[in-house]
Amino acid sequence: MTKHPHPSPMAFVKETSTAIDLHLVNAEDLESWTDMQPRRVRAWLDSLGFRAKPGETVLVPDGDGAFALAAIGRGSLRDRARQRFCMGGARSKLPAHTYRLHHTLAAQELEEEALGWCLAGYSFRRFRQSDPADHAKLIAPVHLETHRIEAIAAGEALTRDLINTPASHMGPEELEAAFSDLATKHRAAVSVTLGDDLLHQNLPLIHAVGRASNRSPRLLDMRWGKSGPRLTLVGKGVCFDTGGLNLKPGASMGLMKKDMGGAATVMGLAHMIMAQGWQVQLRVLVPAVENSVSGNAMRPGDILNSRKGLSVEVNNTDAEGRLVLADALTLADEESPDMLICMATLTGAARVAMGPDIAPFFTHDADLARALMQASAQVRDPLWQLPLHPAYDTLIEPGIADLDNAPSGGMAGAITAALFLNRFVEATPRFAHFDIYGHQPSAAPARPKGGAGQGARALFAALPDVLAL
């Protein structure tokens, strides 16, 4: 795996006299834009029937056989509300030349299109022998914070690479290596609690979930930054989830290499933050395990103790993510950071409610929720708040133990999982849990089928104001 991925080398380049003019055209502006072009250009566009549909791309030749200009459609207002990253979707349709952008976009629209351009350069090539195709390059648009855009894109590329890597090559040890690579790049400190040391360090739930695998469970702990607000990110790192003794059906197991998507996403977000040099005291915690089947696997009906002291009845060994997160969240909460964020591919119930594109989040903090929803709309990283409904607390209280990891009945599964995690956070004033999918089921502009980050861009946009940076 590439240690420090970039979605596409040289996505942005410096000014050159050989660049081809590239126009972004909204459908409602098509007539006025066409009227401003030379007659031969108008005739060419008319002959091709160019209507500026989303991602529609046309190249106009000059009189010498070269390209006079290129145009990419962005569709109507309705189209643009339904589809992100038109420019990214068109990048692969352009010959691998250098382009100079012409547009009438507002700053936020330009940032989105430029990010899509970068993201469209991503492909997962670890197991391919062929060389990657050349990509079109873009002269850095004036006033665009290209370093910031590239940091976001590189963070997303890291997330995608980690999720796309199969469990044969991305177990707890390999996830630790990627975690350490990220820390080395940004001169962060890392500590690892491994195997039976988890018991000695009072992290029993992480040990219980991972002990059945011959790939030792571990807790990864990164610290970066010496001043500013204390921000802690916790990501679920279940590198493969068989379901344990409550074995998943084969069809449900096919995507379980992505069950470390929470870890991958917080690592991508951490890269964005560190690359931009935020004045924060950043901590990243990843419980890295494989939920396997063997003679010493945890069993349905087992009672487990947690770091916090709460006992947990295991009524389904396939509800393991909340167990490993419980110990990690307790450890994080002991420092009472200014902000605690948890990200996990946690429940199928969240997908039933929201589909693959929208990530629900849970928080008691109304100001934080408002900031996240505003940022979500601003950067078009879809989120939606679901309630930590206190009346459902009884569903996670089995009677025989303090908590139940898998309430019967199947109702409100995403909410009961969030309520379970919420029991392990008491001292931190601001806490949010994200139940993400981490996978793009079919290709979309700048989002190939496969691993995908969710929520990181919205957090990256919201946190500076929330933390008063």
Automatic annotation (TrEMBL):
Belongs to the peptidase M17 family. InterPro entries: Leucine_aapep/pepB, Macro_dom-like, Peptidase_M17_C, Peptidase_M17_N_1. Residues 316-323 form the Cytosol aminopeptidase domain. The keyword Transcription does not apply. CDD domains: Peptidase_M17. The keyword Hydrolase applies. It holds the Pfam family Peptidase_M17_N_1. One of its GO terms (molecular function) is manganese ion binding. This is Leucyl aminopeptidase. Transmembrane segments: none annotated. One of its GO terms (cellular component) is cytoplasm. SUPFAM superfamilies: Zn-dependent exopeptidases. Keywords: Aminopeptidase, Hydrolase, Manganese, Protease. It comes from Roseinatronobacter monicus. One of its GO terms (biological process) is proteolysis.
